[in-house]
Design a protein that fits this description.
This protein is of the alpha/beta class and about 450 residues long. The chain binds uridine-diphosphate-N-acetylglucosamine and calcium ion (CA).
Length: about 450
C-alpha cells in the first residue's frame, strides 16, 4: 500500500492450557500450517517489513518453529516475555524491535489464524490518515469476556476489559478484536505509561487508548469481520477455524479453475497448488507440499503429501502419494497403490495394488498388479531402477538394490534379486510341473483313507 515501514509484533506467550496439549497453543495447525505461521503470513501480506514474535519462557518449540519458518524470506525476531504480566508488557518485550523506528507497529495475537491481511491494511490506512492508534473492533454473537470499545463522535475513547466494565458498559456489543495498529513514534512512549491498576492486575495494552486520548492524540476503531477476531482457545474452536479455512480454500481453488465434485469432502493444506482443469473427486486429502499441474484427474479417496503430479496424470481411486512421489505427464497410479520417494516417468502405469518406494519407473513402463519394490532390509533403504518401456509381470517382488533395463520383461510372480539387462526376459520363480491324471489319483486315495477311518470308528 504505502511507503510506510511496518513492524508486526505477534504475541504468542499464551499458556494455552485449554488445548490440553503438550504442544504450545500457537503451534496447533490449521490447513497443515501452525496458527502462528498463518499470522506471520497475514502480517507479511499486509506489508510488514519486520516480524517480532513474543514467546513465553521456555517456549522452545515456538522458537524453533519460528527459526525454521521464514515468511516470504523474512525471519522473525524472537523475544521472550519472562513473566506473563499482560498484553502491554508482552509488546514491550519487543521494545528493541519497536525502537528501530518503524512508521507503523501492528500488534496481533498468535492464536488468530484467520486474520485477514485486508483488515491489517485497513488499520494501517488509519495511521496513514493521521490516527495515532487504530483498533480493530468486531461484533461477536456473545461479547462476554471481550474488551468493550467506548466511542464518541468517531473517536475511540477507551477499551474497557470485561472485568473492569460497569453494568452499562457491559451492554456495549462492539468489542476489541485484539488487533491494534500504533504509529511507531508513539508506540513506546504510550506503552511506557501503562500501569496495572485494574481487576486483573495486568499491564493492559488496551490502556494505551485512554492514554493517547489524554495526550490529545487521535484514536479510532474500525470494524473487522468476525473471523479476523477469532482467537482459538480449545480444540473445538480449532476445528471450527479449520472448517472456515477449508471452505475459503475450496472456493479459492474452484475459482482458479479446479473442479471439486464434492468440495466439502476435499481437504487442502496451506501450500497446496493445483492447476486449472484438474478434477478432484470426493474424499481426497492433500497434506502439505503437494503440487498438481493442470488437467490431472484425482479419483476418490486418495491421500497425497509432499508429492508432485504433472499434466494429464491420473491418480487413484484409493491411491497414496507419499513424500518424494513425482508422477510425470500422463502417468497412471491406480487403485491401492502407494508411491514414496519415486519418480514415475511420462506415460508409465502402476495400475493396481503396488508399492513403489525409492525407485525410478521409466517412461511407458508397465507395472503389473501387486508388484512390490522391496526397498528396506530392516537397516537401510535401497533403490530400484526400472527402465523405459519395461514390463513387470504381476505379483513380482523387486529386491533392491536392483535394476531392470529398458524394454526388459519380468515374468509374473518373479522375485528379482539380480539386475535384468535391457530387453532381457527374466524368470525369478520355480518352474511349473504338471502331472497328467495325478489329481484324480490323489482324490481317490484320500477318499479311500477317509472311508477306512470311518468304518474303524
Ligand atoms: C484481550 C484484550 C481484549 C480483547 C481480547 C480479544 C487486553 C488487555 N485485552 O483479552 O480487549 O477483547 O484480547 O481476544 O489486551 N499475551 C502475552 N503475554 C501476556 C498476556 C497475553 O503474550 O502477558 C498474549 C496471549 O498469548 C494472547 C494475547 O496476548 O495471544 C491476548 O491475551 P489474553 O490473555 O488472551 O487476553 P484477553 O483477556 O483475551
Ligand atoms: Ca484471549
Amino acid at each position: 500500500m504505502t511507503n510506510r515501514t511496518c513492524l508486526a509484533v505477534i504475541l504468542a506467550a499464551g499458556e494455552g492450557t485449554r488445548m490440553k496439549s503438550a504442544l504450545p497453543k500457537v503451534l496447533h495447525k490449521i490447513g497443515g500450517l501452525e496458527m502462528v505461521g498463518h499470522v506471520m503470513a497475514a502480517a507479511s501480506a499486509a506489508g510488514a517489513d519486520g516480524l517480532a514474535l513474543v514467546v513465553g519462557n521456555g517456549a522452545e518449540q515456538v522458537r524453533s518453529f519460528a527459526e525454521t519458518h521464514s515468511q516470504s524470506g523474512k525471519q522473525p525476531d524472537i523475544y521472550v516475555q519472562e513473566q506473563r504480566l499482560g498484553t502491554a508488557h508482552a509488546v514491550l518485550a519487543a521494545q528493541e524491535a519497536i525502537a528501530r523506528g518503524y512508521d507503523d507497529v501492528l500488534v496481533v495475537f498468535g492464536d488468530h489464524p484467520l486474520l485477514d491481511p485486508a483488515v491489517l491494511l485497513n488499520a494501517r490506512a488509519k495511521l496513514a490518515e493521521g490516527a495515532a492508534v487504530a483498533v480493530l473492533g468486531f461484533r461477536p454473537q456473545d461479547p462476554t469476556g471481550y474488551g468493550r470499545l467506548i466511542e464518541k463522535d468517531g473517536r475511540l475513547l477507551a477499551i474497557r476489559e470485561e472485568k473492569d466494565c460497569s453494568e452499562r458498559e457491559k451492554q456495549i456489543t462492539f468489542c476489541n478484536s485484539g488487533v491494534m495498529a500504533v504509529a511507531g513514534q508513539h508506540a513506546l512512549p504510550l506503552l511506557d505509561q501503562v500501569g496495572n491498576d485494574n481487576a486483573k492486575g495486568e499491564f493492559y495494552l488496551t490502556d494505551i487508548v485512554e492514554i493517547a486520548n489524554r495526550q490529545g492524540l487521535l484514536v479510532v476503531a474500525s470494524e473487522a469481520g468476525i473471523e479476523s477476531a477469532l482467537g482459538i482457545n480449545n480444540r473445538a474452536e480449532l476445528a471450527e477455524a479449520e472448517a472456515v479455512w477449508q471452505r475459503r480454500k475450496r472456493r479459492e481453488m474452484m475459482l482458479s479453475g479446479v473442479t471439486l465434485i464434492a468440495p466439502e469432502t476435499v481437504f487442502f493444506s496451506h501450500d497446496t497448488q493445483i492447476g486449472p482443469d484438474t478434477v478432484v473427486e470426493p474424499n481426497v486429502w492433500f497434506g502439505p507440499g503437494v503440487k498438481i499441474a493442470s488437467g490431472v484427474r484425482i479419483h476418490a479417496f486418495s491421500h497425497l503429501e509432499e508429492a508432485a503430479v504433472e499434466t494429464g496424470a491420473v491418480i487413484g481411486p484409493f491411491a497414496r502419494l507419499r513424500p518424494g512421489a513425482s508422477i510425470m505427464e500422463k502417468a497412471k497410479i491406480g487403485n491401492f497403490c502407494e508411491v514414496k520417494n519415486a519418480r514415475v516417468e511420462p506415460g508409465a502405469k502402476v495400475p493396481h495394488l503396488s508399492y513403489i518406494g525409492d525407485a525410478t519407473v521409466g517412461a511407458g513402463a508397465n507395472i503389473g498388479a501387486g508388484t512390490i519394490t522391496c526397498n528396506y532390509d530392516g537397516f537401510g533403504k535401497h533403490h530400484t531402477e526400472i527402465g523405459a518401456a519395461a514390463f513387470i509381470g504381476t505379483n513380482s517382488s523387486l529386491v533392491a538394490p536392483v535394476s531392470v533395463g529398458a524394454g526388459a520383461y519380468v515374468a509374473s510372480g518373479s522375485v528379482v534379486t539380480e539386475n535384468v539387462p535391457a530387453d532381457a526376459l527374466a524368470f525369478g520363480r520355480a518352474r511349473q510341473a504338471t502331472y497328467e491324471g495325478r489329481a484324480r489319483d490323489l482324490r481317490e486315495r484320500l477318499a479311500a483313507e477317509k472311508a477306512a477311518k470311518r468304518s474303524e470308528g
